[in-house]
Design brief:
399 residues; alpha/beta; 5-stranded mixed beta sheet; transmembrane; Inner membrane transport permease YbhR; ABC-type transporter activity
């Protein structure tokens, strides 16, 4: 038992000496829990942006608009008045749902004729879609029930007459972009992007640390070759492999998983190239700074959990705290996943994807700049004991 406690004591000292290991063991779980708790702190999707296209412009149609405005679940966007404006607002994300009240709505209601009100909502994000559909039905049910109660109290209608009044409004619903509510279309490609990110980043991050551990990195540092050529030569195979995997997984998703791929193939390829370049350059930069492969593995593992959760790919970014949104927009995976959805699922053209391309292009430039400016010199060896894989040393008491 004493031997076990001695070994445990040594390991505990090792954990407290290594900062990264200490963070992973004691602080990272709490940090992740706090991060995700803050991400989902709103819990309920309120203030869903909705447009009311009132083609009747009657007292009754304005009452419906007021019912949506008074609901805590919706925020009416007053700038949208026509159906083409509704289509544009749904494309650019200005609104997530729309209600189209037909002409002669009040007249048909007065005659107890069947009246169809069109509601549309964005199904590309299932969380938006499910909640919006439920909220719209709640508003209309309350509206119809209120009218029925008014008739019952004021005119003394029978139950059958009240039922007839309640059946005079038929609610037609259209689901745009993901009409079958396919969970595959909603989630699968986001997971694929994280796979490409983590595997690609880990692979290229080991390229220089492997040379350090084999003590062959010196030959690159002392060779009369500029740093950018070293980066290009060592990163090129991983860049090509990453793009090959991107295309392969797109084909696999379309062929076997039956994922929807609409929009421009050129835009999908451009997004993939930029994303791949960022991953490759960032991985090389990490590799030049990390002391060994163990540290690289730890760094990359720490990224795997939060990237997907805070990106806004599942839980809408409008309901995520601002400081987390700020962090998420510093990550290429956020722009890549949301941009990919805009093209593949919503089939939007270049003008809607430009912000994503600009952000990814800037990140690619900064990542490459950081990768090609590594110092061509050796860092001094650590003091205080024999180095393990050029990394942290044993404690001095165990020399």
């Amino acid at each position: 038992m004493r031997q076990i406690l001695n070994i445990a004591h040594y390991e505990m000292l090792h954990i407290f000496k290594e900062k990264i290991l200490f963070l992973m063991v004691f602080l990272v779980p709490l940090g992740y829990a706090a991060l995700f708790g803050a991400t989902y702190v709103s819990a309920i999707l309120n203030n869903v942006p909705v447009a009311i296209v009132d083609l009747d412009d009657s007292k009754l149609s304005r009452e419906i608009a007021a019912a949506f405005a008074n609901s805590p679940h919706f925020k009416v966007v007053d700038d949208i008045k026509t159906y083409p404006e509704l289509q544009e607002g749904m494309k650019n994300g200005q609104v997530r749902a729309g209600v189209v009240i037909p002409e002669h709505f009040e007249q048909d209601m007065a005659q107890h004729a069947l009246t169809r009100v069109l509601t549309v909502y964005d199904g590309s994000n299932l969380i938006w879609g499910y909640n919006t559909r439920k909220y719209i039905r709640e508003v209309f049910n309350d509206f119809i029930a209120g009218r029925a109660a008014s008739y019952l109290a004021g005119l003394g209608y029978t139950k059958n007459e009240v039922r007839a009044i309640m059946d005079t409004v038929s609610l037609n619903t259209e689901v745009w972009y993901n009409p079958t509510f396919s969970y595959t279309n909603f989630l699968y490609m986001g997971l694929i992007m994280i796979i490409l990110h983590q595997i690609g980043l880990l692979s290229v991050s080991l390229t220089v640390t492997r040379e350090k551990e084999r003590r062959t990195w010196l030959q690159f540092l002392s060779a009369p070759v500029p740093a950018w050529k070293i980066f290009a030569g060592k990163a090129l195979p991983y860049f090509l492999a990453g793009f090959f995997n991107y295309v392969l997984l797109l084909w696999f998703a379309a062929r076997f998983v039956h994922l929807k791929f609409g929009g421009s193939l050129t835009l999908l390829i451009l997004l993939g190239l930029l994303y791949d370049l960022i991953i490759t350059a960032a991985g090389f930069f990490i590799s030049t700074r990390a002391p060994n492969s163990l540290q690289v593995t730890r760094y990359v593992m720490l990224l795997s959990v939060p990237l997907f959760m805070i990106s806004g790919f599942t839980w809408p970014w409008t309901h995520i705290p601002a400081f987390i949104n700020f962090l998420a927009r510093l990550l290429p995976s956020t722009w890549m996943m949301l941009g990919f959805r805009q093209v593949a699922l919503k089939e939007l053209e270049l003008s809607y994807i430009l912000p994503h391309i600009r952000a990814l292009s800037l990140m690619a430039f900064l990542a490459v700049l950081a990768a090609v400016t590594f110092p061509k010199r050796l860092n001094p060896p650590p003091n205080g004991g024999p180095a393990i894989n050029n990394g942290p040393s044993y404690l001095s008491r165990w020399k």
